Amino acid sequence: MVARFIGGAPSGSPREDERGSAGLAHVGEAPLAPRIDEIRRRPLFSLQGYSGLQRSCGDVYFPASVEELRVLFRMAKRTGRRITFRAGGQSFDGQALNDDIVISMHHFRSIEIDTQRARMTVGAGATWGAIARELAARGFVPYTVVSTSHATAGGTVSGDCLSRFSGIASKEGHYVERLSLLRLDGQLLSLSPDDATSALFHAVIGGLGYLGAVIDVTYRIARVAPAGTPIRVVTQATRCTSLEELATALLPRPEQLLPSEGGTALEDGWIPEALFSIAFHTLEGTKGMVLRSRYVPGTSHELRPLLIHRPRHVLRVPIEWLMRASVVSRGLWTLIDRFLFDVSRPYVDELMGYLFFMDGNVRAKRIAQTFGMPMLTLQQAFMIPYDPRAPEDSLRRLVDFLGKVDEIATRDGIPPLLLDVLHIQGDQFLLSANHGTDGFAVTLAFEVSEEESAHRLRLRLSELSARALELGGRVYLVKNVHATAEHLQAMYAHALPEFVRLKRLVDPDGLLRNEFLERVFPAHFGPAPRPASP
């Protein structure tokens, strides 16, 4: 059985990317090609990244079909203007910003679910909130999904994103079976991991929208409950007394992992679990805990939600605002640790609250903006390599890096609001921080209210990037990135030549722009010369 939706609602109409401009055709004639002035546009529209630290002002177009995208591509080639793709607007850095042309994929939001094959095909503009709701109604969940419902499939697949379930289930790209890519020359390609398109497939996933327009994505999905049955998430938290204990507890047991890479019958009946850790600074020092979560069908488990998994709770907005001051943050974490974290019994959350806990931060930022209160967010993630043949040495590297984080926080009085760590399996996606190696993903989150504090944090994050490189690690390219060009070049030297080759193959005129990649890898992705407009 295949169910089809447009924007999360059932529909029998054609998928949005197939409609073109059929309404303009005469009976018995081929559809007329759309004109550029028929495509919705917001001229000189101001945009910003999720962090609030990067901004742009350009012409934003909202195409509703592949043919309209082709029209925009032809216009860009004719005029020399450069294009960036955007949908949910949840990128932390400048990955979806451009002062020239921004193409919004908002209208490409179809959702098709094949319950018999445990597959779904979703448009690039489909939000994960809409996707998760449609899946849950049929007893399914994504194997791994980011923590805000506002992010879109096209955006997250372009980042090969991770989540709390990635500690066991790996990252998003692991579950992509196929994707459609529209090249700048108008060719619509179907890419998969096992055929002649494999090289481009492994570059587009994690390629930050720099190789073409992702139109739709087919994912494998996990059945966790009978259709129509509520799904809840049970989480058991365990306190850790040392960084060594925390690091060791993050290694998944062999029986928790898929015996081989996905796409086989081995996935049938395998339900992903989450295994991750959090650390936070209190007035009494750094505290940490490891959390294990699993999906459960039905309502036999009484709800006992964590506050962080209640994004619309009345206290969530004021707490998010107060956390910007480091002294207040440590005080709040002290109260939370003493009186709210009861690890003696499991927590039980509603599915959507658990999956999309960062929606509370999104809401707090939006409300703050209406009052003119800046809430600047910095999140940077590092991958510290793990070699299963030398586990003790690998764990020492992780503890070394976490100790450096703690040293800087204590020295400068700017502790992260939250630090989380999880183990990630290696993959073959070119710009993945885990390309060719298992590792520990270490993510630091900060909230500040002024640019001066943000500048201090950039310096400290760059210092941590240098330490990660010394340990053989990399910076994750999907969040904020603060590191020298030389350090980033060394981290990604294994992948950049092949990525550049593929970029030139699919975009020989350099019409696609990614402000972020061109800034962090200037030797490889310098801006292309722009001809004079006719």
TrEMBL record:
<dbReference type="InterPro" id="IPR016166">
    <property type="entry name" value="FAD-bd_PCMH"/>
</dbReference>
<dbReference type="InterPro" id="IPR010031">
    <property type="entry name" value="FAD_lactone_oxidase-like"/>
</dbReference>
<dbReference type="InterPro" id="IPR036318">
    <property type="entry name" value="FAD-bd_PCMH-like_sf"/>
</dbReference>
<dbReference type="InterPro" id="IPR006094">
    <property type="entry name" value="Oxid_FAD_bind_N"/>
</dbReference>
<dbReference type="InterPro" id="IPR016169">
    <property type="entry name" value="FAD-bd_PCMH_sub2"/>
</dbReference>
<dbReference type="InterPro" id="IPR016164">
    <property type="entry name" value="FAD-linked_Oxase-like_C"/>
</dbReference>
<keyword id="KW-0274">FAD</keyword>
<dbReference type="Pfam" id="PF01565">
    <property type="entry name" value="FAD_binding_4"/>
</dbReference>
<feature type="domain" description="FAD-binding PCMH-type">
    <location>
        <begin position="53"/>
        <end position="224"/>
    </location>
</feature>
<keyword id="KW-0285">Flavoprotein</keyword>
<feature type="region of interest" description="Disordered">
    <location>
        <begin position="1"/>
        <end position="21"/>
    </location>
</feature>
<protein>
    <submittedName>
        <fullName>FAD-dependent oxidoreductase</fullName>
    </submittedName>
</protein>
